[in-house]
Amino acid sequence: MLLGTKHFHFGKNKLSGVIPKTLFSSKMTLIHVLFDGNNLTGEIPDTLSLVNTLTVLRLDRNKLTGNIPTTLNNLTNLQELYLANNEFTGSLPNLTSLTSLYTLDVSNNTLEPSPIPSWISSLPSLATLRMEGIKLYNPIPNSFFSPPQLQTVILKRNEINSTLDFGTSYSNQLEFVDLQYNQIDVYRQPSSNTRIQVILAGNPVCLELGNSASYCSEIPYNTSYSTIPTTCPPCDQGREANPSCRCAYPFTGTFYFRAPSFSGLFNTTNFDILQKNITGFFNKFSYPVDSVAVRNIRENAADHQLLIDLLVFPLGRGRFNETEMSLVNFAFSNQTYKPPPIFGPYIFIADPYTKFYDGGSSKSLNMGIIIGAAVGGVILLLLLTLAGVYALRQRKRADRATDQNNPFAKWSTSKSSIDAPQLMGAKSFTFEEMKKCTDNFSEANDVGGGGYGKVYRGILPSGQLIAIKRAQQGSLQGGLEFKTEIELLSRVHHKNVVRLLGFCFDRSEQMLVYEYIPNGSLRDSLSGKSGIRLDWLRRLRIALGSGKGLAYLHELADPPIIHRDIKSNNILLDENLTAKVADFGLSKLVGDPEKTHVTTQVKGTMGYLDPEYYMTNQLTEKSDVYGFGVVMLELLTGKSPIEKGKYVVREVKMKMNKSRSLYDLQELLDTTIIASSSNLKGFEKYIDLALRCVEEEGVNRPSMGDVVKEIENIMQLAGLNPNVDSASTSSTYEEATKGSGDPYGKDSFQYSGNFPSSKLEPQ
Predict the structure, then answer these.
(1) Which uninterrupted H or E stretch holds 133?
(2) Are 113 and 243 within one domain?
(3) Transmembrane stretches, by residue range (predicted)?
(4) d(CA 601, CA 217)
(5) Which of 27, 440, 477, 742 has the most CB atoms lying inside 10 A of its own CB?
(6) Of 72-86, 223-237, 734-748, which range is least confident?
(7) Cα(646)–Cα(651) distance, rounded to whole angstroms?
């Protein structure tokens, strides 16, 4: 029995058979149970109603039978209940105990005919109600629309008759009522609320001769609305007009909004807000974007997702180059862009973009014309022959020079060249230089690695130690992705972030050159591998340093970066035990010529992964906060987050007793901390902060900036100056640190850029 499990997310997995009764227990603390879109049969098990911590229950789009159990009333914390598109029979039970319920969908079941349920008006939190095709009859009582939060009501394809009258007690939040294909013959429109969009198509009131009222039009599942003016003249060659009627090749794609808080496509103000919000985002972060537009807005009738096409127009010219296109795409595919809250979570699927800007082709053409004009004429054949031989020799000589001095000239995913990277403080190394400083990549300098390849220790001619991450064949990025990667990494400069010194893109090799961090990862120190002893005060400084590095990536990096794999193996310790965040960059673009879109590989590490990821498939800044909270608990226990089947977050929550000293967590603490337990000032506040970071819902977690401020306060309680950077100096190191081995183990410093364990994204 998975008593500590919070989420069962098994939607759209082709599951069949019955839901076993033994799956649920009153001792469980489940929050989400998602079994939608499968082939499940049988009845809803009565044991499900014992899990009174549930907030979301999705059983829709299956083949479930039997009665809808009245025991669902026991789920008093339930907020969303989806039972639509099954084969339930019997009558709809009274669910008045579900006072937290804001979404109810029981549409398209084979229920017995029944009058409109009066208990609906007793649900104070109800916002969305869907009861399509369940044989409801009788007039709708005036009180039916009175729940104060009610916004959307779908009652189409029933047998509701007589008069539709909203009365005077309807919700002032009400926006959309769909009563298509019922038996309503009289409609009394509300006098004080013109916001309500009512659809009565297919009712007797709309079958009267000459009735052309707006409420008699069928609800469209798409609209021709566009933020591009219809007065713009047509563009040629596949170009599109932007909102200023200038023609260009835009970057395009489609938003899939899963749960917008509004219904219907008539309120175009919402779409204007979206367009302005996206424009503001690009302007704020100085993206190479002139303007944006939205169009082709439609609803997926099967799962009620809202689909919106997006067009992003380039700044200053008619098309994007490949780097610009990638930056724009990353903003959406990596969830850097956050839409207005009314649109809810989204997925973005980009269309292929092939109309790249090539600044060099016209120059080549002009040069060809000049050369042709110069040599045309006298002794044409001889001059052309001599010029050809000369040009061939010069070209080969230039190519050799380019190979040595400017490898970027080769970088291309098409026939057009890619501009050299715009770097800030990073140097280009040749393959020969890398070979020399690693003694021909000798085994003695092989200090670790992972799925992407190996990490080598090297020494520059200046004597500086470096760490070289060398991609193995099969893990190589395309030139564009590698270029974008090093451009991003070269802009990151913070004392608590591992610094990129340079790179090598030569002889079909891709390498990144970092500063060498001699004391390895935090996990090495916590496990005893490094021989470094970490007392309470050192652990506080490490928490502060790594928190500052992560806060920098979120709030001050340009563009902001979501790490996506915060863990103790990705926090390195330098010679002064200063914490440095490692392993951040771009996720590999997954491009397939046979497919029509680009996505990103997302992989975190079990034990550190945000619980919300299992529902949204997206990682955000708050996902990093969750991983950091796990690291904070790891600093206390010294153990990996999952060890011998026990999860550190759950263990701390279960054993914690705030009324006792050290919250009664002594048996979980690392022995080094226990040895100094008489001086653990700030311990309780530290635990409180860590548990806030690992809240189930991201909205309840603090930002990394707030986390840093609170750790600084805790350090002051412990008598430390938070402005002193290091956790130690070299003179205070234990003798055990000498000769402790290479710091880059198999699990540390995993490269995110192109390789299977992609970690992080620009935000």
Answers:
(1) none
(2) no
(3) 367-392
(4) 44
(5) 477
(6) 734-748
(7) 7
**DSSP three-state, residue 158:** coil
Q: What is the pLDDT of residue 101?
A: 93
* Of 197, 221, 350, the residue nearest 298 (C-alpha): 221
Pair 630, 607: CB distance under 8 Å: yes
**412 burial class (0-12, 13-18, 19+ CB within 10 angstroms)?**
middle
Q: What is the pLDDT of residues 600-654, one digit of tens each?
A: 344 578 889 888 887 777 788 999 999 999 999 999 999 999 888 788 999 999 8
Q: Please state, in angstroms and rounded to a whole number, the distance separating the CA atoms of residues 542 and 548.
A: 10
Q: Is 394 within the bounds of a domain?
A: yes
Query: 327 and 367: one domain?
Result: no
Tell me whether residue 415 is in a domain: no
**Does position 416 have pLDDT exceeding 80, yes or no?**
no
The helix/strand/coil state of 136 is strand
Mean pLDDT of 59-79: 95
Q: Do 63 and 87 share a structural domain?
A: yes
Is residue 355 in a domain?
no
For 761, phi and psi rounded to 5 degrees?
-135, 155
pLDDT in tens, 124-147: 999 889 999 999 999 999 899 999
pLDDT score for 432: 94
- How many Cβ atoms are within 10 Å of 112's Cβ, its own excluded? 11
CA distance 61 to 80: 15
- Quickly state the pLDDT bin for 508 (edges 50, 70, 90): confident
Residue pair 428/505 in contact by the 8 Å Cβ criterion: yes
Q: Out of 38-47, 315-324, 435-444, 475-484, which region has the weakest mean confidence (pLDDT)?
A: 475-484
- Marked catalytic residue, from 358, 565, 624, 670: 565
The yes-or-no answer on residue 688 being catalytic is no
Q: Give the Cα separation of 115 and 92 in Å (integer).
A: 10
Q: Report the CATH number that the domain containing residue 735 is assigned in CATH.
A: 1.10.510.10
Pair 254, 298 in one domain = yes
- 3-state percent helix, strand, coil for the chain, nearest multiple of 5: 30, 20, 50
Residue where the block lists tokens 């309470």: 536
Structure tokens that stand for 495 in this block: 């004392």
- In this prediction, what percent of the chain has a pLDDT beyond 70? 78
Contacts of residue 302, defined as CB under 8 A and 6 or more positions apart, other chains included, come to none
Q: Which domain holds residue 390?
A: 361-402
469 marked ligand binding residue: yes
Q: Are residues 396 and 540 in the same domain?
A: no
Q: What is the mean pLDDT of the chain?
A: 81
User: What distance in Å separates the CA atoms of residue 269 and residue 342, rounded to the nearest whole number?
Assistant: 12
Total domains in the chain come to 5
What integer pLDDT is reported at residue 179 of this predicted model?
Answer: 93
User: Do 201 and 229 reside in the same domain of the chain?
Assistant: no
